[in-house]
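> forwarded from #structure-qc
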């Protein structure tokens, strides 16, 4: 029943919450979103977090911009010339990244003005609302690691599967050094590109390492689906098959081809949303593989579930303040009382969205492999 509840929670709208000052006058200081295609003026965002869209659709009768996972919620655009439709969101959006698509006379399309990001089992348009704390995932003049594509054989599925691996700055020059590994999973409808493209995981790590807040480690990000699941049919997902891919195929491949410390004491697993469900199940099923567990908007652990507490070095639980932070805090207190090292984090003024998970990774990384 717990897994079903977690899966149903994954269908929550991503990032649709509006701020409380919806009635404030809209500041006309709009600038192009940082996620726009080169040279594209729209969409735009202003200093208050409003978004403004401009779509060319000369023969359309209606145009709507739908924000969030699955395209729920939205802004109806008005025709301002024979070809141009424009509109501004009714209120400010939450800070951070948001998916969206354009509905023209009932058909769903991407905005040609923006870069595209894989979410909701399709490539979606993306818009970035500048955050007050965006410095921690900003591109800075610091040493940078690399995000490398990894193709690995999967006998259990009869395919060659893909993962991306973050190697920290200096990895290629430190030929004798071995590194811990974090296996980091995406959410439902996303893929192995999500944590780098939407989550800025590599930039978060670069900045943390440069500041001395965390020791370098590898991050492995792979596709978390092994069977095609239709929208709204998450009960059809087969965790056992993915568990085999991760634990019997990917982890041995990474340990063989990269300079890792191939011990549970130097291996962590974390995931957001559906990836949290995967993390929860696999860490409990395979307690000899991981010593660090992290669920980001992905449920909780209870002391009774963990068969050998001595093998667990850290349990990290997080969510947005608009989710259910009381559940996270209660579960963390219970784990602490039972003798576990447990840490909770609640992202301020965010919901089930990437700003929550960016902040969560930023808080988690310095706690790993101590």
């Amino acid at each position: 029943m717990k897994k079903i509840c977690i899966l149903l929670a994954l269908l929550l709208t991503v990032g649709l919450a509006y701020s409380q000052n919806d009635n404030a006058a809209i500041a006309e200081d709009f600038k192009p979103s940082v996620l726009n295609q080169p040279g594209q003026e729209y969409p735009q965002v202003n200093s208050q977090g409003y978004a403004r869209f401009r779509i060319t659709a000369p023969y359309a009768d209606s145009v709507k911009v739908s924000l969030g996972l699955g395209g729920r919620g939205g802004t109806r655009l008005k025709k301002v010339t024979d070809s141009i439709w424009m509109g501004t969101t009714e209120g400010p959006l939450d800070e951070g990244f948001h998916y969206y698509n354009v509905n023209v006379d009932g058909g769903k399309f991407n905005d040609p003005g923006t870069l595209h990001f894989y979410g909701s089992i399709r490539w979606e348009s993306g818009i970035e609302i500048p955050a007050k704390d965006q410095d921690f995932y900003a591109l800075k003049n610091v040493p940078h690691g690399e995000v490398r594509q990894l193709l690995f054989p999967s006998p259990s599925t009869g395919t060659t599967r893909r993962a991306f691996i973050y190697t920290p700055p200096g990895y290629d020059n430190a030929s004798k050094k071995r590194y811990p590994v974090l296996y980091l999973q995406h959410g439902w409808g996303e893929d192995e590109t999500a944590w780098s493209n939407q989550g800025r995981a590599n930039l978060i790590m670069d900045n943390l390492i440069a500041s001395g807040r965390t020791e370098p480690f590898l991050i492995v990000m792979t596709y978390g689906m092994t069977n095609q699941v239709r929208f709204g049919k998450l009960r059809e997902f087969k965790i056992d098959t993915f568990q085999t891919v991760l634990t019997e195929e990917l982890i041995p491949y990474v340990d063989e081809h990269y300079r890792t410390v191939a011990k549970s004491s130097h291996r962590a697993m974390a995931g957001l949303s559906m990836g949290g469900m995967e993390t929860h199940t696999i860490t409990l099923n395979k307690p000899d593989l991981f010593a660090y567990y992290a669920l980001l908007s992905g449920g909780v652990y209870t002391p009774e579930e963990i068969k050998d507490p001595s093998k667990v070095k850290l349990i990290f639980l997080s969510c947005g303040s608009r989710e259910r932070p009381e559940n996270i805090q209660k579960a963390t207190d219970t784990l602490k009382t039972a003798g576990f090292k447990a840490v909770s984090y609640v992202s301020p003024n965010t919901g089930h969205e990437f700003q929550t998970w960016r902040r969560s990774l930023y808080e988690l990384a310095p706690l790993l492999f101590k």
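QC bot note: Residues 1-22 have pLDDT under 50 and may be disordered. The longest helix spans residues 239-257.
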